[in-house]
C-alpha cells in the first residue's frame, strides 16, 4: 500500500470518528463541516485553474484573463470552456465532435459555483455553445437540467440561435462512415484524442467553480447521456471544500458519483490527489473487465492544493496560476 493511500485511510478513519463525535453533540451543519476541515493547511496559489488535457491550456488562459478582468468564477469557467467548444478540430467537444451511431452530434455540458448554483444541458443538438445554455438554465429557470428537444426549444425561445455549422463536420462525418463499415458497433471513449474538457478553478478569494462540456462518447447509442452534464458525476463544486471534474468513460464515473465523492473525501481530510486516487481505486474495484476502461479526475481544494489521477497512464491536465501555465502528468493506477 502506498504511503499516500495509507495516510488517506488514516485520515478517513479520523474523519469517521469525528463524524460520530459531532453527531453525539448535535452540532449545527456549519460546525459539522468545519470540524472535518483540517486547520493550518499551507495555502496554495490563488487564482488557480485546472483543466483536463492539453486543450485546457487555451481554456485556462481565457479563464484567467476573465478572472483578472473582474469576472466571477462562473464567467471564467464558462468563457474558458467556450474556447474548446469553438475549436472545430476538437473531436470530443462542441459541434466539431464525433457523432453518435446515427450520425448526430449531441452535446452535454454543466456549470457550477461555490454557492451550489448549477445548470446543465444534455443531449443538445445544433447549438454552438452548450455551456451557455447550461448557464442560462441555471440563471433563468427553476430547474438544474434540461435535455434533448425540450432543451433545444427552450434555448431557441430564450435567445439562442440554431448553428449555421453543418454537423458532423466533414472530417468527423468521414470517420463515422468509415466506422460504420468496420465497427462492431462499440462506442469509443476517445481518451487518446484529448477529449472532454472539465475546468475547475479558484478565484483570488478562494471561491471554487467549474464547467464541463463534451460531445460525449463517439458512436454512442442515440439518446445516451454521459457523466459530463450530471452534477456530482462529471463535475462537482462545494464552496466549503473545493471542486472536481472527470474525463473518460462516463458510465464508470456515474456509477461511483465520481466528482461528488472526491469532494466529499476532501471534506473529510483527503488531499485532492488522495481523493482522486481513492475514486479511481473504487472504480477499479467495481469493474471486472478493466480492458480499455479509462477514467481520469482532477480536483482542487479551497486551500489551493490540487491533484489528478487516472486508471491508465497518459492522462494530463493544464495548470494555470499567476506564475505557471503548464501541463502536469496525472498520477495513474495501472500501466497500459
Ligand atoms: C462521456 N466523459 O460522455 C464523457 C466524454 C468523454 O470521450 O470523456 N468522451 O462519457
Protein model, in words:
With 336 residues, this protein is an alpha+beta fold. The chain is 36% helix and 22% strand. It is built from ten helices and 13 strands. It has helices at 3-25, 29-36, 56-68, 73-86, 130-140, 148-157, 170-182, 250-255, 258-267, 272-285; strands at residues 48-52, 107-113, 118-124, 145-147, 197-202, 208-214, 235-238, 242-248, 295-301, 306-312, 316-320, 325-329, 331-334. The strands form two sheets. Strands 4-3-2-6-5-1-11-12 form an eight-stranded mixed sheet. The longest helix has 23 residues, at 3-25. The chain starts with a helix and ends with a strand. The relative contact order is 0.17. Residues 1-32 have low confidence and may be disordered. N-hydroxy-L-asparagine is lined by residues 92, 189-190, 195-196, 214, 216-217, 226-228, 247-250.
Total of helices: 10
Characterize the overall form: globular
How many β-strand runs?
A: 13
Order of helices and strands: HHEHHEEHEHHEEEEHHHEEEEE
Beta-strand percentage range = 15-25%
Largest beta sheet, briefly? Answer: 8 strands, mixed
Small-molecule binders: N-hydroxy-L-asparagine
C-alpha-based Rg, rounded:
19 Å
Strand order of the largest sheet: 4-3-2-6-5-1-11-12
Q: How helix-rich are the residues, as a percent range?
A: 25-40%
Class inferred from helices and paired strands = alpha+beta
N-to-C span = 20 Å
Question: Overall pLDDT, averaged?
Answer: 88
Which regions contain 5 or more consecutive residues with pLDDT less than 50? 1-32
Amino acid at each position: 500500500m502506498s504511503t499516500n493511500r495509507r495516510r488517506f485511510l488514516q485520515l478517513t478513519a479520523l474523519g469517521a470518528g469525528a463524524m460520530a463525535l459531532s453527531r453525539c453533540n448535535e452540532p449545527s451543519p456549519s460546525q459539522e463541516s468545519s470540524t472535518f476541515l483540517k486547520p493550518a493547511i499551507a495555502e496554495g496559489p490563488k487564482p488557480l485553474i485546472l483543466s483536463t488535457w492539453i486543450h485546457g491550456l487555451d481554456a485556462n488562459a481565457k479563464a484567467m484573463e476573465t478572472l483578472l478582468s473582474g469576472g466571477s468564477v462562473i464567467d471564467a469557467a464558462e468563457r474558458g470552456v467556450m474556447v474548446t467548444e469553438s475549436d472545430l478540430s476538437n473531436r470530443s467537444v462542441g459541434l466539431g465532435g464525433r457523432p453518435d451511431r446515427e450520425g448526430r452530434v449531441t452535446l452535454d455540458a454543466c456549470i457550477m459555483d461555490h454557492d451550489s448554483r448549477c445548470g446543465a444541458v444534455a443531449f443538445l443538438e445544433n447549438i454552438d455553445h452548450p455551456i451557455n445554455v447550461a448557464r442560462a438554465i441555471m440563471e433563468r429557470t427553476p430547474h438544474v437540467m434540461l435535455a434533448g428537444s425540450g432543451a433545444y426549444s427552450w434555448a431557441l425561445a430564450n435567445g439562442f440561435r440554431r448553428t449555421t455549422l453543418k454537423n458532423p463536420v466533414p472530417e468527423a462525418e468521414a470517420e463515422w462512415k468509415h466506422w460504420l463499415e468496420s465497427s462492431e458497433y462499440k462506442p469509443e471513449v476517445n481518451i487518446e484524442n484529448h477529449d472532454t474538457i472539465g475546468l475547475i478553478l479558484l478565484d483570488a478569494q478562494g471561491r471554487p467553480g467549474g464547467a464541463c462540456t463534451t460531445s460525449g462518447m463517439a458512436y454512442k447509442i442515440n439518446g445516451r447521456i454521459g457523466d459530463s452534464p450530471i452534477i456530482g458525476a462529471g463535475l462537482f463544486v462545494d464552496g466549503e471544500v473545493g471542486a472536481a471534474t472527470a474525463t473518460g468513460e462516463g458510465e464508470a464515473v456515474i456509477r461511483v458519483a465520481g466528482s461528488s465523492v472526491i469532494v466529499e473525501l476532501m471534506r473529510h481530510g483527503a488531499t485532492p490527489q488522495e481523493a482522486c486516487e481513492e475514486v479511481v481505486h473504487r472504480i477499479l474495484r467495481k469493474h471486472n473487465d478493466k480492458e480499455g476502461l479509462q477514467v481520469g479526475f482532477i480536483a482542487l481544494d479551497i486551500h489551493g492544493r490540487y491533484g489528478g489521477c487516472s486508471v491508465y497512464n497518459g492522462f494530463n491536465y493544464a495548470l494555470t496560476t499567476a506564475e505557471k501555465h503548464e501541463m502536469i502528468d496525472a498520477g495513474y493506477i495501472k500501466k497500459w
